[in-house]
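Below: protein 1.
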Amino acid sequence: MIYAFICKDGGDKTQIRRDVLLEHLRYIESVIDKIVVAGTCPPLSSSDPRQFEGSMLMYRADSPAEARSLFECDPYFKNKIWDSYEMMNFSPVAGDYIGGRTWDIVDGKVMRKDPRAA
């Protein structure tokens, strides 16, 4: 199962992100086999002075507890970079990441498929 974490910084956390970056990246490298995708979220507004608004991380894990543990061991979590986060199950169904789409439409019916099997 894939678990998504949508994380929001509270205020401008640029300096503490910089201070903890090396430790954070070393941690990410240590669990890279569990990471589906991870990255920062710059602000939507060009007038927002912050460099980052938050982050998104997706982990492949056997349980919600394992995913939460992976997330909570991250130095950015431990150093309170994110003021809030939301954890959700994630089921990819379309896009480059999965190689297309997970369905075909045949005779007006939706047929599920594995896009990687093509």
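Below: protein 2.
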Amino acid sequence: MPNYRAWFQCINEACARTFALDDLVYECPSCGSLLDVRHDLEALRARPAAEWIKLFDDRYLRTSWPYGSGVWGKKEWVCPTVADENIVSLYEGGTNLFWAERLGRIVGVPDLWVKQCGNSHTGSFKDLGMTVLVSMVRQIMRGPRGRRLLGVACASTGDTSASLAAYCAAAGIPAIVFLPRGKVSAAQLAQPLANGALTLALDADFDGCMRVVQEITESGEIYLANSKNSLRIEGQKTIAVEMVQQFDWQVPDWVIVPGGNLGNVSAIARGFEMLRDLGLASRSPRLACAQAANADPLYRSFQTGFREFTPQTARRTLASAIQIGNPVSVQKAIQALTAHGGVVEEATEEELAEAAALADRTGLFCCPHTGVALAVFFKMVERKQIAPTDRVIIISTAHGLKFTEFKRGYHAGALEGVTPRRRNEPVELPADVGLVRDAIRRRAEG
């Protein structure tokens, strides 16, 4: 492999301080800004676009370690400095781009697709970034400086903790996860417990957990795994590259992304920027960030043209993974949305629940966060912001099976503030053929 280089760089252009990828640094110590991973684009441009396309297609979902992974098949664009023997991969990525034709026709946009990032090892898109981060931790621990770490830690509303726990278990590295007590689903709580992570349930919301984890990682004994660490963004940006690859290297018109801590918005934007910068695409899509109305600080900032941003105390929302009032990646998200003609919209609890239920009726099984993105999509179609001929991709961030309480609560009519219009309860009957036939006929007759 040619000598491709990557490094951390402060996103504040007036500062632009740089660091090695194996430095234990998450924000610029000079100015306090977040860091990006930057690549030597001139070296990458030395390979023509057609050759990158062939290389990525030849590797995609094949068995040559580790390049069959949807992330590591793009290793040169992601983290070229990690040695193959240090890579911790569970063959993440390669997830289905679901043609939601029936749902699209219902709302008048038949070229509608759902990128099912939840069809991954731990059931969420977080695997895409965690493979990069944990691989770098393994390299740091095995490197010439032989750094000893007590573990890798994250604050989480569920999915990040599951992903960190699984990758650390595969690598034999201790994982420490901080969860807001009583505010994650049973399935999400079970995952880090099963993988052996030290699971700390705090009497706090996500933002409170995030404050604690940032403080305990300051000493350098524990490595930070939240998306404030831009190694996570590098893995997640492959969502953009993979979607274009799945369309035979054609770019969609819109991508709609649920937004909580806001790392995924900037990650996807970064992926499209690299496609354009390296000649694999001639344009980028427009981005829409979808927030729950109960946790909508970016939406409120968007209403001011991003002139102001005020953190908030997020209210309880069914979309628990994006119940975040003070997102750490807000600077990057605003930059990304501004560069990509982006918009921010919100969805109420009833809107997100009904959007997920409608999508489920057409063959999907949506998590509540995907419901937020779908509800925003419906609004944008209704006000003609999205045209009937547009190709639209909804980013589905997690598998619906992680949120069976949400599904069951909807169909039982037990979700607070939601009057379910598509409720579907079991019909309990004696084992009588006549009664069964009557029930079938009643359903058929509507």
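The mean pLDDT is 95.
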